[in-house]
């Protein structure tokens, strides 16, 4: 009898001390800073267990809208993914919180690594035997941004047909259509890091922040090409690429634009977030001075003040 009572006590104690989960779907490019945020957040709020799942931003959104996966927060490498795929049914607001820019990552063993520079990199990527990686444009913003960068190259460097010569795509990307002798595609940009480090590819279209976080060599692109300068918004618009829409058979035309990340609290139909209080606390922690320090340490510039669109009144409910 005493043994049974003791076991019951242990079970009750375990339940009372069980941590509340905060489920976060986020872009692969946020993996490193969000791991650090998780550690610091749980140190401040030990009652919570942050559970993160990284994927391409559009893939994250579709886990929520199509697969009906439970989540409290979604953070996207392109704020427009939240606007286009989650709002209004699965989210009510969008916070633009950090920026980034595109870069070309490589290693010392990449072909022509000793030659490449900001002037000749388009020509080197077109050379025979050079393998190039990018993420899937239909799943990951880094993928369609890679396409937009390649199109801006034609205008800035005056190289006619660069986009088609490099990728061989038309105005959109269908899975498996890449020239496998030249191009390697994976669901998200961080999936390609291992291939680069294993020398299975020579060059990788990737975010500058990710290249810095992983200690990679990378080529800084001219601001007219990098999608990293808010003053060049009109210039970037000249590049366009089609990606799949909300429903099968529909398309969204992506235009070049300065890179801005977005974050929101997920609402599941007519239900409130699974962990409303925890989600609000995490968002506020992200937007705090500590959150800013972590993001900027990892190569992503904080937007100050943060731009909030939609109804963010939930943030005042804590």
From TrEMBL:
Gene3D superfamilies: Periplasmic binding protein-like II. InterPro entries: ABC_trnspt_W-bd_WtpA (IPR022498), ModA/WtpA (IPR050682). GO terms for molecular function: molybdate ion binding; tungstate binding. Signal peptide: none annotated. It comes from the Bacteria. GO terms for biological process: molybdate ion transport. Belongs to the bacterial solute-binding protein 1 family. WtpA subfamily. This is Tungstate ABC transporter substrate-binding protein WtpA. It comes from Deferribacter autotrophicus. The gene is wtpA.
